[in-house]
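Work package 3, deliverable 3.1, input record:
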Amino acid sequence: MRKNYILDLLKNDERLDGRKLDEYREIEIEVNPVSKAEGSARVRIGKTDVIIGTKMDFGTPFPDTPNEGTIKSEAEFMPIASEDFESGPPGEDAIELARVVDRAIRESQCLDLKSLCITPGEKVWSISLDTIILNHDGNLIDAATIGAMVALLNSKIPELEDDKIVRDKHSGKLPVSSKAVNVTVCKFEDKFILDPTREEEEVFDTKMCIGVRDDGKVVSIQKMGPGSLKDSEIYDMIDIAIKKSKNLFKLVGKDGKKDI
Amino acid sequence: MGKTEQKMIANGKRLDGRGPLDLREIEMKVGVIPNANGSSYVRFGKTAVIAGVYGPRPLFPRFLRESDTGILKVRYNMIPFSVDDRKRPGPSRRETEISKVIRMAFEGNLFLKNYPQTGVNLYLEVIEADGSTRVTSINAASLALADAGVPMRDFVVGLSGGKIDGTLILDLNGLEDNNSDADMPMAVLPTKKEVTLLQMDGRMNPEELKDLIKHVIDASGAIYEKQAEALRKKYIE
């Protein structure tokens, strides 16, 4: 069985595609591939392919933050991306992905939400961040978070004329002051594996998705999968994620290919 | 229960008088829903949860059955008047995600392979929410599963940690949750000292984060003792 083969290779720190355990596949980032979006990004990690876009509209602020714009994140696992995905409202995996991406962005406080206030307590800019999976070959959350960050960094705010949104004119870029990425660390016995393919994800099903800001602070964590983790393993996984995030930050905001 | 400019810790005490690592008053009862195979009520301060377990029982619809394992289904739900602004009935995105992570906190801890073709339904109803509802639900879930006689490798203890005004704290209430620099719900297997749920949002450097994880694991033993006591009480009385 394929699963046993993956585990046999792992004993010698080897993987099906020849990568090291902590090595990502090639990451390719395309900036603003969709001109109708306020900002967009297409991210490929190996055969995983996601596209993320932002749209800005009028919204009402939350009662406890009347001077702040809002951001909401949604994800669609479209049937085009995998034989396992079906049409219909988002399932729990899509909801979890959207919320884990949202948390890394939100908790990093990278976006100055106060600058998105139009009329305090009444009208603010509301940013929608939508993640579309085009091809699923594992590690969707890392890809989606890179895409979200690149899309936000390259988003333009539409102009307001007589209180109406004019989509083809812009009044400046979204104020993004820092960056955040998610690094998913899989654990199997005493090994840690980064950037799993879809096949590997089925075998290494216990993992932590760790959100890191570019100053090295941890901003979010989501333990996933049914296994359990010792405290020392969690500490190692946090250190691995912080270390690897530095490579990812070099890519975010740039257009082009790079191996990390 | 929103954001406040008030200092959350003064003279080493939290606004409700607790020290940083103190837990709120805890109440645990087993066997509160007569129709369920197992049930419990758990309260941490003003956060209260009722848990009910049905199963293992034949799973319907039939196509969901697995020939080599039983299936755990979890519903975490906040009742409409459990919060300040009425919560609309029906699963929110937040509740869907929490139901999933709670399922993951238990799935590996149950012997589901011994119950092929069946389903275990775990229902978690948050009656009143004042912070830390998912971890309170986890404590209630452990008791209800034990009450239903579902074999477990270990108990599962839920406890939240956080950082507020630069201080590491345990068992956040609602006001603290809304004003914290970080909050971190965890589920711990208290005898194995292993972690089955870990979520965090906030901003922490790795050293603080590791300290906080350690505090939560260390404090889980006391909650486990209260769970064991609540179970014993049902069967002795």
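The domain at 2-255 of chain A is CATH 3.30.230.70 (Ribosomal Protein S5; domain 2).
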